[in-house]
Amino acid sequence: xxxxxxxxxxxxxxxxxxxxxxxxxxxxxxxxxxxxxxxxxxxxxxxxxxxxxxxxxxxxxxxxxxxxxxxxxxxxxxxxxxxxxxxxxxxxxxxxxxxxxxxxxxxxxxxxxxxxxxxxxxxxxxxxxxxxxxxxxxxxxxxxxxxxxxxxxxxxxxxxxxxxxxxxxxxxxxxxxxxxxxxxxxxxxxx
Length: 191
Fold this sequence. Notes:
- Helix content is 73%, strand content 0%.
- By secondary structure, the chain is an all-alpha fold.
- Helix 2 (31-37) packs across helix 3, helix 6 (95-108) crosses helix 8 and helix 7 crosses helix 8.
- The chain is elongated and about 60 Å long.
- The model is unreliable at 70-76 (pLDDT under 50).
């Protein structure tokens, strides 16, 4: 019972951290502001997350769990292009999560950022997963002649780049429709 309560409290703290990071960015977010949102003192929050970096990693891991339906990162064989389109549609319904992820991603490119290693490892894995998705769909060559490994970083860049454009101008950028248009480009003429 105590463990379940502790996990529930950790979840509340992570959700509050997502909100605070979305509003202020990682560097502007403080443990005190997260603690205040959940009715704890900063010392009380440190009982659940001993450092700001530990809380950041929990936020990033939780975001990935949301994207994969509650599990860890999806296995490469579990995604298909149509499921990626569904993920883009799902992301369009949760701007706060997308904003938090995008803010952290942008900040993580700076030297010494605590999320840099997380994102570096994550993107290596995502590129492998996207290559597997493309291989399952097209075999060893896409209609354009690119290999799945050549196209995987492009697919990943389109997904994340559309998120930034959509966050900046949601009334002008229909993220799901734009991604479906990209899939049409991938599939080539007559698809």
